[in-house]
Specification:
The chain is built from 5 helices and no strands. By secondary structure, it is mainly alpha-helical. It is elongated, with a radius of gyration of 18 Å.
């Protein structure tokens, strides 16, 4: 990839961000899988706190990787053929953040009854999306590094 000079290693920053968001996701999954129907208020509170942490970690991860000097910008610069895939990945990042925020707002509305099964279903969908996006980003970075920069076949 392009020489970064005094900039931090974008890949190391990305790894740290991704590790933080994955840990936050694991906490959300743990709370979602806890007993819910018999204690909906406590379940909601625990899950809402975990979703707040997930939203923060995802926002940090996505904004850093998409910034003008972030990893995805470097990949687009070094491997222009991947630009449209990177834009689609960024759009899906935004969509996932919107989904997390929507679920947080739903849970924060104390006038609504918590539908534990429905919330768990939404979390399952978000989990699948995040895991797919993580793999896709990894593939893009690898593809750019291995093939556009001459280290691959």
């Amino acid at each position: 990839m392009t020489n970064t000079g005094d900039r931090p290693d974008d890949i190391a920053v990305s790894r740290a961000d991704r590790a933080r968001s994955l840990e936050s996701l694991h906490v959300v999954e743990s709370h979602a899988g806890a007993a819910g129907p018999s204690r909906p208020d406590e379940w909601r509170d625990d899950l809402l706190f975990a979703l707040d942490e997930l939203a923060t970690s995802l926002h940090d991860q996505f904004s850093r990787s998409a910034s003008d000097d972030g990893l995805l910008a470097r990949v687009a610069q070094d491997a222009p053929r991947l630009t449209s895939a990177i834009e689609e990945l960024r759009d899906r990042h935004s969509g996932l953040l919107e989904e997390v925020d929507d679920l947080r707002q739903t849970l924060a509305d104390l006038t609504r009854t918590v539908d534990v099964a429905a919330v768990r279903g939404r979390i399952g969908e978000m989990t699948g999306e995040l895991r797919e996006l993580r793999a896709w980003e990894t593939d893009l970075v690898y593809d750019a590094y291995a093939f556009d920069l001459g280290t691959g076949d």
